[in-house]
Task: structure prediction
Amino acid sequence: MKFTVPIGPQHPALKEPISLRMTLDGEVIRDVDIRLGYNHRGLEKLAEEKTWLQNIYLTERICGICSHSHSTCYTQGVEKLMEVEPPKRGIYLRFLVAELERVHSHLLWLGVAGHEAGFDTFFMYTWRDREVVMDILEMLSGNRVHYAINTLGGVRRDIDDLQKKKILDSLDTLRRRTEYYLKIGANEPSFVARIAGVGHLSKEDAIALCAVGPTARASDVAQDVRKDDPYGMYAEVPFEVATATTCDVLGRVVVRVKELMQCYNIIEFLLKNLPDGPVTVRAPRRAKPNEVVSRYEAPRGENIHYIRSNGTDKPERLKVRAPTLANYPATVVMLKNGFIADIPLIFAAIDPCICCAERAVTLVNARSGQEKVVLMSELRRQAHERWKKAPLKKDAVWPL
Amino acid sequence: MAALKTLLYIFVYPGLLFLFIYSTFCEWFDRKLYARLQNRMGPTHTGRWGILQPVADFIKLLAKEDIVPERADKGLFTVLPVFGIAAVATAMLLLPVWHYDLAQPSPNSFSGDIVVLLYILTLPTLVFFLAAWSSTSFFSTIGGARVLTMLFGYEVPLFLAVLSPAIMAGSWRLAEIAAFFQHKPLLLLPNIVGFGVSVICLQAKLERTPFDIPHAETEIVGGTFTEYSGKKLALFRLMTDVEMVVGSGLVAAVFLGGFPGGVILGFVNFVIKTLLIIFLLSVIRALTSRIRIDQVISFSWKYLAPLAVLQLLITIVLKGFVR
Amino acid sequence: MRVAAFLPEIIRHLFKKPATVDYPFEKLEVPKDFRGTPFLHPELCIVCRACVRDCPAEAIEILTVSETDKKFKMVIHNDRCIHCAQCVESCPTTPKALEMDHLFEIAAFSRWDLKKEWEYVKAQVKPKAAAGTPSAEAKS
Result:
């Protein structure tokens, strides 16, 4: 007996709204239809109205957990457009914060995976240890999320010796606790029974469906932008790409924990080899007409920003391809022939950051269910027409 | 006079008022212990040490809007919470709390009352299933199906484990079983296996982690309780707490030697022994993660049922020697 | 795979102090460079409007009260502010006219309570010859 059941848009298993319509056969899932667009905010259009400098803060707010990855990916691209080369110390500090963000994101994910499996104790412990990282980030950048440490041409703040020592000391605690979590995650029988063998994605499927990040690496696809296309100073830093061969949720847990250990090594290397010098250079206000594609390894996978400039101080077009968007087709394959009880775990295993991935493409008429694909140029033309015809308000007072 | 005493039993002790106060205290104990095991604080500011938090939750729920879904079976939907509370409160009357001494037994104690108690304790599970079924929402239907599926898993080991000390004591009357183990406390030790099995099965009966699949929050929203709100939900939650008290009271009466010592000391005994069992239940809850429904069935039939049968065999063999 | 691998750890936590900070009865100290809310040192502002131009949230407004007396009014809309401190960075004076303090408990019941205003006379920019001194005293 097949019936279609909606998981979402509002559901306790999902942290953000997304609609997964499952066709069920008892407790087994036969098909999944993913509908996006509930979190669309019009960021790409808004980015065209703000200057290059203001857009750093805008791109940072695409996501809360991977905020620095969007900000860095954008800043890297714009620095390429403006032909500005940030100094070495600036680059090291920028990617120090990037690796700290990776640590905090993976610890957060471990807690969320535990909570989805019902293992609340694990959730509380990992998030307690994540507070160490949040305090370090607050000390470095002035805020626990949305670090705003990037600026065009480098970073905004410097690090002194006392802060360096504090970070190195907390690395010991973090290393110890992460090894403990690996032991627990792989040994607690009820937890392993939930995550082993669940959400299988074979290596061929992972490559064919363009899965990115730990989702692909758990299926033995050794793909990491930091190694394939090194940006920043990653060509000089020694680290390994973490992979696992089990192709299931347990593999993804193992990959993320291994990545955590690699992050600690990278952070130690960066702190011990921090070069002296300035942290920023001046950047011009305008960029020459050009286009650039910037790639970055976010905690969830490969993040791509495409930026086009037309010689003014505002971008002509900013397009964001977040890693979660690339993992959706793989999720459909993983969910097929699984149990209902596994839905939250499989979905959480790709580390969904739905607000990163919202780029509405298909318009669905809510009443009739008809779908229509609209070109971006068509949407812009409609927006401009409506704006031209809108009545002009004299002395418009901001409703704020 | 007898009528007054009966009314006192029903409404004050060991009846409804005592059950309300004690079960909210046990919920507080469970929540505080669970929080401390997770290195956090638990309820803190309502009353000293947050002891009034479950009462505050109950009162808050009573004040919320009570919505009955359109397609739900209204009669069944409304009556079930009250029926559930009635069932578990009745079960409490059969525990040998006040009148432990066989010389002056409780008017509720009769031969075979352990079987009746186990039967009445099955009623809450049926109430959950009927509540889920009468809600007619997708999530509650799945929750109801899971409740019944779990019943097939833990009921048999629970019965076998709880009835083993009864066989050793040679009686089906709770007061006599408790008295037997009071006179021969060393015979409590061979029942360790049964004790372990019944604590785990009690955890499954109370639908707590690792067996909280029927109302797994992250999967099926609320499971059985998805459509319940306001007063009905308050009564359901109270019913779960009272079930915890009665279940641990049963396990304590049978495995830990009952509650001797008359009125005051017996009451203290009752509190201490039930809190000990609730301590074990909380530790199990903090220790494990939720397992899937098919894994519950395979776990109980592969491990729990054989262990319960083993306990039964030990009891039978020992009875031959003890006599 | 050991059963109850977690047990010693959780029992040990029974005897430790909880990791929770009992806010608002206990508060944590914020670090030195914490980005709180922006505020103005009116005697240092030269009304270059760099902060107005660079603010991503359009949270700073500088209005001309009187052109002849060189009186200006700055309004900082703390309900729009995203606490990025770009205004502090763009400010060209030394010492900076805008500064971030450590306040973060600024919640109010209405957004109009969150706007702060300063009325002041524009400060004089010191001539280039003496610009090397670290503390440029501005004449009010």
